[in-house]
Structure formats: structure tokens, C-alpha cells
Amino acid sequence: MTIQAETHQIKKHKHPSRKHSKKKDSVTVSVNEKSPLIPKKKGAHNEFNGASMSGAVMNLSTTIIGAGIMALPATMKVLGLGLGIAVIILVAVLSEATVRILLKYSRPGGTDSYGGLMGDAFGEVGKKMLQACVVINNIGVLVIYMIIIGDVVAGSSLNGVHHPGLLEGWFGPHWWTGRILVLLLTTLCVFVPLASLKRMDSLSVTSGLAVALAVVFLIITAGIAIFKMASGTLQMPRLLPEITDVNSVWNLFTAVPVLVTAYICHFNVHSIGNELENPSLIEPIVQISLVLCTIVYIMTSFFGFILFGDATMGDILQNFDSDLGVPFSIELNDIVRVSYALHLMLVFPLVFYALRLNTDGLFFGSSEVPLELDNKRFAIVSVGLLSVIYLGANFIPSAWDAFQFTGATAAVCIGFIFPASIAIRDVYGIATKGDKILAVLMICIAVFANVVAIYSDAYALFKKTPSTRA
């Protein structure tokens, strides 16, 4: 098992400026990228001999299926069902290609991390850029998780419309059902214990449960949609976007950052592969996970948009707070919202794992002691990040807004621009002509689509125009 690339490394031969006596060198512990987060104890009852393939699939799938799934039906409202599903598949294919690039270019130099790969290609500046993007992206993603959990449990108000949360629906409005207290208790009682785990494989069981909860949400949504279609109460959904003027064309690009964010798992691929009992299995694990998640994404988008149509909210969970027109509507609403709130709570530590490692590498990269062996620094970094995420969730009004700006900036760099740049740089001379053509196309598409998306959302924000997605 190895530490993710974004953590610093300590090797005696990589610190020429440090002067050691032979006596000191004889007792110095070498800690490199292949050092386990929790060292193996030979003969111990709890010896860790490597993660299983099934556990790795669950961890990677859970990294992918986060909050993005809740915004996908809203992208169908922007793109139309036919075009939207086609774009989901296209982004999945491009994501698989970029992960394959990372793994391909990691082998010649024996690099076991994304950050190390960026360091090989672009030096220390490249590594720091990757770490900064992971920090920005993951903080944004985790803020979105908290926003959605707050919306589900404590309720929210959007465009003058109040959406009651679970606690308010069950017990009525009270001071203890408010958003600030609910998120604080969730952080202290759920996120702090799960974020304290130092090995990713320790989260494989919770990851499996998280995927199961996402499937519960999907089954209920599909069941309700099929029931209403059979009863003839649903209208035929739009297959293509509504194009009325130039602004409606630009608006199509606002869906791109949400789709990009939905597939960002690159920061955890090396960490999961490094813990595998057989590291060569990482490529089929990536492929299995992407296929599984794409199926879940398509079905969620399809049934969610069919069920709510143009009334689909930016966070579809907000649609599950009123009468659905089916038997046991109230009970089904509660099951859907509870299951997905629990899902996000279980996904949180996987994304936080990479966030903490990259934050430590970015700000404490010169430290001689690895993060997992320095309990004080581990606690300070963890508490600091959780505090930032908690504050962000209380002050950012909409999960869609957070998706737009994190997805259009850091996420697209992590998922597309950086891997494509590594292929173009080709420090080991292994790139094919097809690799470089694909890399150039990905960079051009990513830059164009996201510049337009940022412009569109910034224009809507500053002009205070009503959102068309939420």
C-alpha cells in the first residue's frame, strides 16, 4: 500500500541539503510513496495484506457517485433527455480515457500517484497545481454534500419557496431542527469519526453501503415513474433542448460542469490501486466502476426527469417534499431523502481522504514526518478542513451554484486538462499519435465549454436573473 502522490515523501537520498552522520542514517526511517498508511504487522491478528478487488470497486464507485447524481436530472431539463444521456456516455468515455492516460504514464517512472506524475511532467510547480486543484475541487464537492444534507434534514428556501426538511416534517419547526445545528451535529457525530480513518480500505464496507443506498434511491424513483407512466399521468419528456435565442444556446454549456464533476475520481485512483493485493487489477476496476456508475447515472437522469419534467429542481431531492400522486407518497418521500442523506455521509470520508492528503502536501510539504504518523498535524489539518466545509455549507445558498464554479474550474483540470497535458508533455516518449490528438481535443473542448459555462453562470449571478435549473 502506498501513500497518495499528493503527500510528501521522505527519502534520505532526496534531501541532499540535510547532513546526517552515519550513526543517524542507520536509524533513519525511510518513508516513501510505497509506505503504508498503517504499517503491516507481521504475525498480528489484524495484518493488512492488500485490498480486494470488490472493495476497490466499491471505493472507486462511491468516489464517483456522490452528490453529482442529484443534479443530473436538472441537466436533462437543460439538454433534453436524448442529448443529455448522450453527453453522460461521452463524458464517461472521456473519463475512462483520462484515467488510462494517468495509469499508462505512471508505469515507466514507477510513479504511484497523480501528484508524482504531475511532478515528473512539470516539476514541483505541476505537482503544486494539482494539489491546489484537488483542494479546491474537494472542498467544493464536500460543501455541496453538506448543503444537500442540510436541505434534506433541515430544509431550505429557494426563490421564496420553502422546502421543509425531514425534521421539520416529523416534529415541526423548532430551534433544534435548524440548519446550523443539524450540520454541526452531523459533522461532530458522523464526519469526524469517519474522517479519522487513515487507510482507504477501511472504508470499503461503508462504500458498499453507500452504493446500496444510491440504488435504493434509484429503485424508488424508477418505481414511482413507471407507476405514473402506467396510469397515464406523466407527459412525454423533451428529447432535445429548447433553443429560442442565443442565450438559450449558451445556457446549454451550464450543464457541462455538473457532468464533469459527476465523474471526477482521478485523485483517488492511485491510492486505491496502491492498496490492492494485486495492483495490476486497477484498470479493470476503473472500467467496472465507470460502467456501473454510468448505468446508475442514466437511469437516475431518465426516471428523475420523466417524473418531474420541467419542475425538476437543481437538487432533485427537493422535489421529494410534496405529494407525488402515488400511494404512500409521504413514506416514499422520507425513504428517498433519508437514504440519500445517509449515502452522502458515507461518501464524505472518501473525498475527504484525498482532500486532507493534498492539503498537507500543499502547505506542509517540507515536513519530515508523514501526515499519518504525526497525530497532531493530522488532527489540525482535519479539524481545519471540516471547519471550512461547515462554514461554506452554511453560507453558500445553492448546491447548483457550487457545482457550476467548482466543476468549471478545478474539476475540469483534474479530470481532463492535466491528464491531457501529461500525454502531450510525454516525458517518457511513449505517447502515440492518437494519444496526442485525443489530448489536444480534450483540452480544447474542456476549455471552451467551461469558459462559456463560467460566463453564463457569472452573468446570471450578477444580473440576478432567476435560475432556469432550480
UniProtKB/TrEMBL annotation:
Region (Disordered): 1-34
Entry's Gene Ontology BP terms: amino acid transmembrane transport
GO cellular component: membrane; organelle membrane
Localization, UniProt: Membrane
Main location: membrane
Stretches assigned to the Amino acid transporter transmembrane domain: 51-455
GO-annotated molecular function: L-amino acid transmembrane transporter activity
TM region(s), chain numbering: 50-72, 78-103, 135-156, 176-197, 209-230, 250-269, 281-308, 338-357, 378-396, 402-425, 437-456
Extent of Basic residues compositional bias: 10-23
InterPro entries, per the entry: AA_transpt_TM
Keywords: Amino-acid transport, Membrane, Transmembrane, Transmembrane helix, Transport
Domain of life from the UniProt record: Eukaryota
Signal peptide residues on this chain, from the entry's feature table: none
One Pfam assignment: Aa_trans
Membrane topology term: Multi-pass membrane protein
Protein name: Amino acid transporter transmembrane domain-containing protein
Originating organism: Lactuca sativa (Garden lettuce)
Lineage: Eukaryota, Viridiplantae, Streptophyta, Embryophyta, Tracheophyta
